[in-house]
Design a protein that fits this description.
- With 244 residues, this protein is an alpha+beta fold.
- It has two domains: 139 residues, no CATH class; 70 residues.
- Helix content is 38%, strand content 27%.
- It contains nine helices and nine strands.
- Strands 1, 2, 3, 4, 5, 6, 7, 8 and 9 form a nine-stranded antiparallel sheet that branches.
- Helix 6 packs across helix 8.
- The protein starts with a strand and ends with a helix.
């Protein structure tokens, strides 16, 4: 099975894109977290007062420095609705978004991974209907390691896992429940909490199920270029081994 990686840039109305167009020395990197956006702004040039004022309006400043190496700012802002957003379009076409989005010189740069080249082609055709799209590269990934950029974002792995389920999972992990041989039991773990064993086990199983479900798309990508099934029994070797 092959994977396909596509990199492209788009133009449409967006405050980050507009700032990067007005200040061509800027690079803006945008990450979507579960409840906010984190923006990193860098430039090798010293910023003007007008630029600093525009940055102040983007959100809460978490870090700002201006020195001989230039400008470095990290901001946090509320997460605007992603309904009908470009990120949702990626999901509609079975394309896995690779953060961050990079805004540079008036363009938004994106990278996605897909199992089928037709999905990438359909996604780009859809985007071209209402955006100026410039395809930078489309590459088949075959018989090679998945790039490190495919590492799963933590917020996606733990999406929809409740605080109680996370607490149950952490207690089990830190107590050696997942080691071989196990260093504790469900009864012992439950006794360390204020809930019954059945309740604790329910929290733990739900956490495990959600975590594995969320990790599923990344697991399929990591194993997509593998040849054969290492768990499948080779009957020929088994017979030969018996004969020996």
């Amino acid at each position: 099975m092959s994977l396909y990686e596509a990199s492209f840039r788009v133009r449409h109305e967006c405050p980050y894109r507009e700032i990067s167009e007005h200040y061509p020395d800027l690079t803006i990197r945008e990450w979507y977290l579960s409840d906010c956006q984190v923006i990193e702004i860098t430039s090798s040039e010293s910023p003007s007062e007008d630029l600093l004022d525009e940055i102040d309006r983007l959100g809460t400043i978490l870090h700002r420095s201006v020195d001989d190496s230039g400008l470095h700012v990290v901001t946090q802002s509320c997460l605007c609705s992603l309904e009908d957003s470009i990120i949702e379009r990626f999901e509609e076409y079975n394309c896995l978004y690779q953060p961050p989005t990079i805004h540079r010189q008036g363009w938004e740069h994106y990278s996605v991974i897909a199992f089928d080249e037709r999905d990438v082609r359909a996604l780009l055709n859809d985007l071209e209907a209402d955006r100026n799209v410039d395809v930078l590269s489309k590459t088949a990934i075959t018989e090679q390691e998945i790039p490190h950029s495919m590492l799963a974002p933590v917020d996606q792995l733990f999406d929809d896992v409740t605080e109680r389920q996370l607490a149950a999972l952490r207690l089990a992990l830190e107590s050696g429940y997942y080691e071989q041989p196990r260093k504790t039991s469900l009864r012992d773990l439950a006794e360390q909490t204020a809930v019954a064993r059945s309740t604790y086990e329910e929290h733990l199983r739900k956490a495990e199920n959600k975590l594995l479900t969320n990790a599923g798309q990344f697991l399929r990508l990591v194993t997509a270029t593998s040849t054969g099934n290492p768990l499948k029994v080779d009957r020929t070797q088994q017979v030969e081994g018996t004969a020996d």
